[in-house]
């Protein structure tokens, strides 16, 4: 795997020589949607307390961003919501790192898409969750997001640029599995797509208990058809964080294994050896599943955090293939066949459960607008280009 080759690890000490190869910056913990499969329920009152990573912190991290190979501008949350996102893009792209981010695309404008092309953003992955299912899952229509994606494609084509590479990110659920081939058949002829990234749902809420994609009988047939469809359009198809036969780990040709996902035969999990994730609060996270010592970039230097005692002990354990605590059922390493419900959310459904299940939301008293306040429909919530 590419990640394995880039890691310079000393098993005796648990130290990694040199800086992390990848840095994730959660530029904001906020989001403008409330997707039912997200680990955070952005429709709940608690979402109002999510914060943004200060621009001053990003500037202080600039030397690290210039030394790393890959910068990803989000973890959880919609990065374009961040008040200084455009400036953060400029700062992140000032070095040689490949800068990428995932987005729901609803805040794309012509100006912003032109900026992403001009600054040389390496790749942008846009999330889709089906044709009919997209609105049930995310609260916006598939066609509206497709039009936003086309803004980016047109900006790239006008500049005659190969970048940003456009990727489609798809969360595989029982109810949307059969929609994936139709979605790709609609998108791939319209947009030059570099990659299609598919992963099975990880269940966080009771609302999705019956949505385990492993319970969909046609899933292997569907995924094989999607791989063939992507090949015809020159797009890489990668199924990761899974235990399906189409997953890159289970294919015969070892050279086809992608750098996506943390699974490694050498290191067990590459995350603590390869990358650091910095939340919008400044807290540093060691892996995709959220292991953290509580270290914060506002209190400690990143050099110290990267090879701290806690981090070195975690590496030693994983290098020995000892999975303990949360690591024992991490879906990012072991796949999601069992797809256990998160024990932190017993009995919790989701604030948008009615939308997903097709039920009318509970009636709430109408709230009068102030005199003279403008009125707009829910369907016109996207900014104009």
Explain the overall architecture:
By secondary structure, this protein is α/β, with parallel strands linked by helices. 28% of the residues lie in helices and 13% in strands. The protein contains 14 helices and 13 strands. The strands form three sheets. A nine-stranded mixed sheet has the order 9-8-7-6-5-4-3-12-13. The longest helix has 17 residues, at 142-158. It is globular and about 50 Å long. Mean pLDDT is 87; it is low at 252-260 and 365-385.
What is the compact description of this entry?
With about 375 residues, this protein is an alpha/beta fold.
Helix content: 25-40%
Q: What's the number of helices?
A: 14
Shape: globular
Our measurement of the CA-to-CA distance between the termini, rounded to an integer number of angstroms, reads 41 Å
Helices and strands: which structural class?
alpha/beta
Order of strands in the sheet with the most strands?
9-8-7-6-5-4-3-12-13
- Summarize the helix and strand pattern as letters: HEEEHHEHEHEHHEHEHEEEHEEHHHH
In total, the number of strands is 13
Write the layout of secondary structure elements.
Blueprint: H1 2-6, E1 9-10, E2 15-16, E3 22-25, H2 55-60, H3 62-67, E4 70-72, H4 85-92, E5 98-103, H5 110-118, E6 123-128, H6 133-138, H7 142-158, E7 165-172, H8 180-187, E8 195-200, H9 219-232, E9 236-239, E10 263-264, E11 268-269, H10 271-274, E12 275-278, E13 284-285, H11 302-306, H12 309-319, H13 331-334, H14 353-357
Parallel strand pairs: 3-4, 3-12, 4-5, 5-6, 6-7, 7-8, 8-9
Antiparallel strand pairs: 1-2, 10-11, 12-13
Helix pairs in contact: 5-7, 8-9
């Amino acid at each position: 795997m590419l990640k394995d080759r880039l890691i310079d690890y000393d098993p005796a000490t648990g130290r990694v020589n040199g800086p992390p190869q990848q840095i994730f910056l959660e530029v904001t913990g906020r989001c403008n949607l409330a997707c039912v499969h997200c680990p955070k329920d952005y429709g709940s009152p608690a979402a109002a307390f999510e914060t943004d990573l200060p621009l001053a912190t990003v500037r202080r991290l600039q030397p690290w961003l210039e030394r790393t190979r890959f910068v990803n501008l989000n973890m959880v949350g919609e990065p374009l919501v961040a008040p200084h996102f455009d400036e953060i893009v400029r700062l992140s792209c000032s070095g040689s790192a490949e800068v990428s981010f995932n987005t729901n695309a609803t805040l794309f404008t012509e100006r912003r898409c032109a900026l992403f092309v001009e600054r040389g953003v390496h790749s942008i992955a846009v999330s889709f969750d089906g044709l009919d299912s997209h609105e049930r899952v995310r609260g916006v229509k598939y066609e509206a997001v497709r039009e936003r994606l086309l803004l980016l494609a047109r900006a790239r084509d006008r500049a005659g640029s190969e970048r940003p590479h456009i990727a489609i990110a798809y969360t595989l659920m029982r109810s949307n599995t059969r929609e994936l081939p139709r979605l790709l058949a609609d998108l791939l002829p319209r947009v030059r797509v570099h990659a299609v990234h598919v992963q099975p749902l990880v269940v966080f809420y009771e609302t999705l208990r019956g949505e385990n994609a492993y319970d969909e009988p046609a899933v292997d047939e569907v995924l094989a058809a999607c791989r063939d469809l992507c090949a015809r359009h020159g797009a890489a198809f990668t199924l990761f964080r899974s235990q399906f036969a189409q997953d890159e780990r289970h294919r015969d040709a070892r050279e086809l294994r992608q750098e996506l996902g943390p699974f490694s035969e050498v290191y067990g999990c590459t995350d603590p050896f390869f990358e650091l994730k910095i939340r919008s609060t400044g807290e540093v996270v060691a892996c995709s599943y959220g292991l953290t010592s509580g270290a914060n970039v506002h209190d400690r230097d990143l050099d110290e955090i990267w090879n701290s005692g806690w981090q070195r002990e975690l590496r030693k354990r994983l290098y020995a293939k000892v999975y303990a605590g949360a690591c024992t059922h991490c879906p990012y390493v072991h796949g999601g066949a069992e797809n256990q419900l998160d024990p932190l959310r017993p009995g919790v459904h989701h604030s948008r459960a009615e939308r997903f299940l097709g039920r009318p939301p509970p009636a709430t008293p109408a709230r009068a607008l102030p005199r003279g306040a403008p009125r707009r429909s829910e369907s016109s919530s996207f900014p104009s280009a």
